[in-house]
Amino acid sequence: MKSVKIILLFILISVLAKGQTEKVFSDSINYAVAIGGNGQPEVAAQILQRLYQKASDDSVRTLTLALQSMYLRRLNFRRAINVNDSSIMLARSSFNTDLIGKIYEIRGDIYHYNSPPHRDLDSARKFYQLSTEYGHDFGNHTQQCIGLLKLCKTYKFAGEQSQLGIEYAMQAIELIEAKLLPLKLVEVYLELSSFYLRKGELYKARQVLLSAINYINVKYPKKGNVYYLQKVNNELALNFLIEEDYQAAYEHVNLVNAEQSKSSYLMGDSYHIRGRIEIGLKNYDRAEEYLKKSSEIFGSVRSTYFQDRNRIYLSQVYLKKGMHRKALEEVSQTLNAANASKVINDLVLSLITRAEVYFEMGDYASCRIDLEEAEKYIGDVANIYVERRLSYDLGQTYSKLKKMEKSNFYLMKYVSLNDKILEENQSMRLSEMESNYELQMRDYKIKDLERDNVIKDLKINRNRAVIISIVGLSIMITFLSILFIRQNRLRSERQVLEMEHELLRSQMNPHFISNSLGAIQSYIFESDKQEAVSYISKFAKLMRLTIEGSREDLISLDKEIKILEYYLALQELRLEDRLNYTFDIHPDITTEDIKVPPMLLQPFVENAVEHGIMNKDDGGWIKVEFSEDEGTIYVRIEDNGIGRNKAREINRQRAGKHVSYATKITAERLDILNGNRLDKIGFEIIDKTLKEHGMLGTIVLFKIPKTWNL
What we know:
Elements: H1 2-17, H2 22-37, H3 41-54, H4 58-72, H5 77-93, H6 97-112, H7 121-137, H8 141-158, H9 162-179, H10 184-198, H11 202-219, H12 226-242, H13 246-252, H14 255-260, H15 264-280, H16 284-300, H17 304-320, H18 324-341, H19 344-361, H20 364-381, H21 384-400, H22 404-464, H23 470-506, H24 510-525, H25 529-550, E1 555-556, H26 557-575, E2 579-585, E3 595-596, H27 602-613, E4 620-629, E5 632-639, H28 644-653, H29 662-674, E6 682-688, H30 690-693, E7 697-705
Parallel strand pairs: 2-4
Antiparallel strand pairs: 1-3, 4-5, 5-7, 6-7
């Protein structure tokens, strides 16, 4: 292959010797760039050197020198700097301001994209800043935008100053939108999402990436852009990976698209992400295969940084497989490289990973040293997920070292960070729901205005229709009937949205959240960390299932039962020994195959706790039974609380207590959802009396036809 390149090189030189046109120089430079991009920097540098010797135009000579320095950066660092200096002097002598800005950008690349010890991010920022200033001062907006983008990359690469990186990204977006620059906007979106991802703001990052996909689809509606589209999808996969949604992450990583892009970096990145997904799915052999494939690809383009990144996760694979020595060997190599390159994010991840290996080996002293070293840099990383992981590891390590005060401090910090993540994710999802709700309401208003305009036109036509035949009048009546049906349908849909929105807000009230977190906190203070972590997990799953269910028209009965189980488990923690509950599901019922409206049963279970059991001094029990008879599912929710009449009396006397609208909302909601169906979902509430049942309490009976959602 190399001999073919040399032959082509001599053909180009012979053509140049015959005094060909400027186009030949342009084509030859493009050819050299293509060869360099395909992993042949030596050949590219040779071609550019000969072009420099043959060219007479100062601009061409300057450009060949600048590009030479770019391809020499990993071959001979000192020579790359000298050649770059020569290109700057030549550009200044010819007053070519556009090329000066480009050369400064390349000089920044020489420092930024090099291997230790030549990687120097401070010098890279200095030259990227000069490149940006030249673009601004001389009206080269593309160069200005590229400079801002490269500045973003240096802060992301180092894992520090997230806010400064975000500000540079925002400046670039404003510039691109104002000057209508080409596809660079996608690159800025990618950098911006990375900063939000590092800060733990997953939904902000996700919205930015979805904007990037929309931009690509609008700008390239027919041919598309495989490289950028897959690059954005890879970032989305990382977003879902952090949230441990492995199925969603897997759907975004498309190895076929990555290979079609013919980009080694994109292919290596895709295999890296697939490997991390397999770690989450506990398929460690496949994870090792993908990560090694990624390292092989990055090795072919001499990218040591990405190879080191793979080693971090390979060490995790070996740790999970019990190969502690091999895990230690891999992560130690990465740690040495991170120390040399001063890439803070990799340094922290490597220290935490090595500490976890030491922990599994029982070397708690070495584990503590690495974790305390990582803690020194955690403020620069600005990643709440990494900080949460570090806090948990410190808590566990100090516990092993019998330093319980420090252990409790870090475990409390872990719980606090976990709560913050849950709170931010819930807040973002609720904001997203409210935004979607407002957009839908706006659409309905627009449709109402359109309807009003149509009705106005019809009134005008009706005045004219006095002289029209009976046939014309019949057509008008028919048209008005269609509009009336459409109006009723829109009103019904709007009522459904309002009901579901109101029902969601009635769930997971602040008192319950506060009391649950208080109970979890008490477990931690009592050193029952395993129980506390278990309830944190249940709390997070309940929040997730509640929000997911609110966004779907129907969910499986299995999911509805899980919501009840998580809810009652947390209430049991809150009320300690004052609440007992049981579930009885008939074995013939396949709960995964039966669909019901989301949050159908939970409000009545909540009523049983809040109004029945909570006001009873000695506590009580709740039974939830599921049975089937002739194609109908029957649900019975029974409690031995104080009963509805007594609860209403207590609520009247105690202002501010929990007030439930679940019965009214559910009844109105079912009226709309049942519509004109023959098989309807129904429920009734029975107040138990001492005379008839031997105890007080309430029974709620639901009847759910299995054919309701067909």
